[in-house]
Amino acid sequence: MAAFDPWDPAFLADPYPAYADLRARGRVQYYEATDQWLVPQHADVSTLLRDRRLGRTYQHRFSHEDFGRTAPPAEHEPFHTLNDHGMLDLEPPDHTRIRRLVSKAFTPRTVERLKPYVTKLAGELVERLVENGGGDLLADVAEPLPVAVIAEMLGIPEADRAPLRPWSADICGMYELNPPEETARRAVQASVEFSDYLRELIAERRENPGDDLISGLIEAHDEGDRLTEQEMISTAVLLLNAGHEATVNATVNGWYALFRNPDQLQELRADHSLVPAAVEELMRYDTPLQLFERWVLDEIEVDGVTIPRGAEIAMLFGSANHDPAVFRDPERLDLGRAENPHISFSAGIHYCIGAPLARIELQASMTALLQQAPTLALAAEPQRKPNFVIRGLEGLTVKVD
Predict the structure, then answer these.
(1) Which string of b and e fits 356-371 if b means at least 16 CB within 10 Å?
(2) Most C-beta atoms within 10 A of its C-beta, which of 20, 106, 142, 348?
(3) Which long-range contacts (CB under 8 A, 24 or more apart) does 192-201 make?
(4) Chain-centre distance of CA 90, in angstroms?
(5) What is the phi/psi pair of residue 339, to 5°?
(6) Are 316 and 39 in contact (CB under 8 A)?
(7) What is the Cα 203 distance to its own chain's centre?
């Protein structure tokens, strides 16, 4: 298993050969460095995402001591309070209750209503990039688009949006494997600042409700004891973090893949109707979220291997999306791929509630770039972020001839 090393720059540059090695070795393997059981095959990942013997948390059933785990340090409490009250890290019945309430506000009609705004903003961002003869696709298009969209949806005023991306980046650092203490310190500070800001915004929206998601959550909260203020804060942070991290990284990972596969880029430029399929294939080909964790709440068995209660399973989305048992010629980028059951948006009760919005954003930015920048080209080789779980680039410098 030497090839699987989430801290090795060579692995981070291209983890997919290591995944092939893991799949060849079996359906589940213990990885001592993170004290996790790695699951690399598509069928198992898809099944286990739906298995109720696993959970994103264990605290609805066990104390830390009963589960054989150590409570997080007291100084990390602000991060865990924020994180542990969001629906992504909850299990039923709390998860069911919060997701139902969020779904009332986060309706298909709400998402569809945002489509003209998304299309217009994507066009304006790309127009600026073209006028400048190029730039950093990440900073100029990929990042501002989804941040502005989810902030608009939540009802965060434009003047307040500058700290959102830095807060999100610092909080998401805690989702990497074995994060260092400095990462935890930044995540705690961001958790405090973001929570304080949202607490004030919620108070203001109570006085002056609007047609936005935070007002909708307040209305759901004020109908009864359904959403606590902390759950509203945690939900808003989760929607912002999850609502743009994957989209930002899918955009730059995707365009970098297209530049390295000029035949596919040429096909896409010749036929813009391929855009929806291209978005799905690019999310499969270089998955923005590489790993998703679950706690074993009740002992399970995978391929004859017993995994005890209290263990942690790491489901390797990037590997599952390259499993040749499901995807024909998986190492090839194929924008015309007919069958594409990728799991980049997860599955089961924790399937990404924002997947429809993410698809609208990704298709809008890709279409705008194809239409307005038909000669878009890579200007410099990018640097990978030194992260494994959330896979992305430091930037993507492009030019428009």
Answers:
(1) ebbbbbbbbbbbbbbe
(2) 142
(3) 192/78, 193/163, 193/167, 194/82, 194/163, 194/167, 194/237, 195/78, 195/82, 195/233, 195/237, 197/160, 197/163, 198/232, 198/233, 198/236, 198/237, 199/229, 199/233, 201/155, 201/156, 201/160
(4) 17
(5) -100, 120
(6) yes
(7) 29
Cβ–Cβ < 8 Å for 165, 143: yes
Do 290 and 322 meet the contact criterion of CB atoms below 8 Å apart? Answer: no
Give Cα separations from 143 to 13, 121, 122, 401 (angstroms): 21, 12, 11, 23
The architecture that CATH gives domain 14-24+31-399 is Orthogonal Bundle (1.10)
What sections of 208-285 are H helices per DSSP? 213-222, 229-259, 262-270, 275-285
* 262 token code pair: 């000029």
Paired tokens of 221: 């909260």
- DSSP 8-class letter at 377: E
According to the model, what pLDDT value does residue 98 have? Answer: 85
Taking 70 as the pLDDT cut, the residues of the chain under it are 1-2, 105, 221-226
Query: What is residue 362's predicted lDDT score, i.e. its pLDDT?
Result: 97
Q: How far apart are CA 88 and CA 111, in angstroms?
A: 20
**DSSP states of 285-315 as a string?**
HT-SB-EEEEEESS-EEETTEEE-TT-EEEE
Give me the pLDDT at residue 221, please: 60
**Separation CA 254–CA 138 (nearest Å):** 11
Predicted confidence at residue 182, as pLDDT, reads 95
Read off the DSSP letter of residue 138: I
b/e for 151-171, b at 16 or more Cβ within 10 A? bbbbbbeeeebeebbebbbbb
How far is it, in rounded angstroms, from Cα 1 to Cα 264? 33
How far apart (Å, rounded) are the C-alpha atoms in residues 191 and 189? 5
User: Amino acid letter at 36?
Assistant: Q
Residue 322 in contact with residue 339, Cβ under 8 Å?
no
Provide the residue ranges of all domains of the chain, joining segments of one domain with +: 14-24+31-399
